[in-house]
Input
Amino acid sequence: MRAEVLVIGAGPAGIAAATAAAENGCKVIVLDDNVTAGGQIWRGATVDSANTQDVAKQRAMERLQRSGAQVLNGRSVFSADASGTVQTLQETASGNVVEQFHFEKLVLATGARERFLPFPGWTLPGVFGAGGLQALVKGGYSVAGKKIVVAGTGPLLLAVATHLAEDGAVISSVLEQATLAQLAPFAASLWTHPAKLVQGARFRVKLWKTPYRAGCWVIEAIAGSGQTLASVRVTDGTRTWTEPCDLLACGYHLVPNTEIAAFLGCAFRESFVQVDSAQRTSLPNVFCAGEPAGIAGLEAALVQGEIAGLACAGRSHASLQRRSAAERAFGDRMEKAFALRAELRSLPRPDTIVCRCEDVPFARLQGHQGWTDAKLQTRCGMGPCQGRICGPAIEQLLGWRPVSIRQPLFPVPLQAFCFPDASENNTTELIKEKA
Amino acid sequence: MPKLLSILINNVTCQVAPGTTVAAAMLLAQQPSRISVDGDPRVALCGMGICFECRAVVNGTSHRRTCQMLCEDNMTVETNS
Amino acid sequence: MKCFDVLIIGAGIVGSAVARECALLGWRVGVIEGGTPAGAATAAGMGHVVVMDDSAAQLALTAFSRSLWRAESTKFPKSVEYEGRGTIWVAADEEEMAEVGTRQKVYEEAGIAASLLTAAELAKQEPNLRHGLAGGLLVPDDGVVYPPAAAAFYLAEAKRLGAEVFYARALSASHKQVRLSDGTELTADRIVLAVGTECDLLPALPIQKRKGHLIITDRYPNFLHHQLVELGYLKSAHKVTDDSVAFNIQPRQTGQLLLGSSRQYGNEQPEAEAEMLRRMIDRAKQYMPALEKLSVLRVWTGFRAATADKLPLIGPAAGLSEDSSLWLAAGFEGLGITNAPGAARLLVDGMLGRESAIDATSYLPIRLTEPARLAHA
Output
């Protein structure tokens, strides 16, 4: 299939980019690996969803639909090249479908994932990511009546706690590792973002009985009878105590999904994709919007997406630059507010698993020359998540930056590689699994 | 209320609402999605298709990411070991 | 300036095996690694410990080296993942089956166990092969190993015996002097180049890069039991000009499957190529259709260090360099893992002027120098 503008990711940034480009006359296709559009923050968003409470989300979805951009869900991008092709895999109950898309311009709106930091017991059933548990609840897992500790860092924790409480969970506490002193300037700055304050008020209403403890973090998850979670050990740095719970939802803010950008060869600025004021990367036909260009939240994603979409369509985006700069500044303040404390790096014990795919304990990672050496000798990061979970953790624990990204960008069945050569002028090809 | 779907998780029939992901169904049934390399039970962690802890055997095919997959009537799901 | 009896440049599996062999003699050993130990050809390779009979000299070296792997197999740490899986050379049709018979005789004469498998026996050994294949040759004493861990084991043994490792690039190495990128200068009676495909230190090395692709799957325990190689592999490996692919699949101890193989000359791009992958997979599916559903975790490429006669360079660099302190352990093409312990033994024999278990003259670098080739012609 051919698109003038191909957008990868149907979260807020991708939706904004697709809408802007399509409204300005471009043929736009949006690819997303989730079941429905909306990304993580707008997970489950559809135009006719009755329980859609977020007005902004509904408006954005309606406008996207009117723009004429085509949204294709359930597509995981496993191969891409900057000269103009992207390959996706769609897994369905009846078989796998491989598709090839050709583009003139590409917008990477691949969003972010939670950062996980290993601590003793974090592999026990009952321990989830914070956003992870929220996503699973949106997917039909009921937590009604469960006693839950929400922990980690970042603005997501309150949103998660609220959502879980709305599902009937008993939130016993929300533990934020950042200190109040760290958080105060950020909280004060929210006055300039009324939308964010309204959300905050909603959290208050739902969680008025729940203690929100800043400067506290989980040091261990403890199993009861059987191999499931029974309680967590919590500390404020001087005092340590036990909190019984059924579930722990723990995540340490966000890390960007930059694998496709790295594979394409886009230049980076530290962990983020380097972009100019038009959201253009170092590759002239590749743009990047939202979290991969710098963690700055929903509003930044929307404005950056719109800029990228306008730039793809050759339209001016000058009027959006002020808003964009303000949102970037918000992101910078957020980063400072939720900076990780050093103590979190000493949570793993020698036998604490760091790489969950290959069960590599912390002790085995020490004494290596670097990431490549450790990978070769321990298989850390060589499992199906391809280092997406242990990589950011190891960056914190040992200071190693992630190394080369290889094909496929996601595990795919062998047959996915048998798709006809890009030089053959193919549109859509179906490769059905034989029963 | 829409008709419930019937799926088989580790040989036990479970009823779930349409729109439920397979990962959520396995959690509701209190079944691990996979057994780790060293033999420990694991369940979904990230809920968004990144961590691969939720992979299970779906309709006979192993290593399927269940958090990205909706339940279908008469689906069979097993813990990936 | 630090002095050694021998300095080995390159901590791949060959350099590490040589380091251990030298350290066992009580020598002062230095090892120099400018990148990640075992991070180049050793990491890219399959780890098939296999007897190959492309030529009499190749058969002699692979058989000798395999015997060293087997003798040590119980001493390896678990991480080395040595398993005596055996190889099955798969015959697709009756013509190939006739070749299997010829080959068995060659192996028998060399004292290498090998047994014929009928079509039914082959199907029983490997139920995931397609029906209708003619049979095969089972070489039961071949093995499978995880090369980076094996190299690390050799290097750790060398260190235990007193060897010192320098993590820096060797900028120059000649006449008993080695200069490192961090400014260190070292000296030694002998310098061994175990450099894989990196020939900067001795541009006269008659080594060409031969690119290969490999694919690794997720874990599928019991899907496969032996390393399987199509009988046409030798034909494919022989081709010097065209790009070629062959069915070659290995069961890892983890339950993962390692699928090869491709051979390309004159292509030094490290990127995996869609066309080669497709040809490899198409070939593999002709033997094992069930593979197509298995989940692929990673695809990578590597470069084999190929010589004109498909035999390695083991011995003094005489003929390629007038520097008598320079020794070579290089040019192993696709058999670096199999031949590492054997090559280490032959090289040290040569340094000591000691007789070797096999005739080492076929591997002397001097054979590939211009005068030697002219004399041969």
About this structure: Chain C has two domains: 2-45+147-206+309-376, 84-142+208-306.
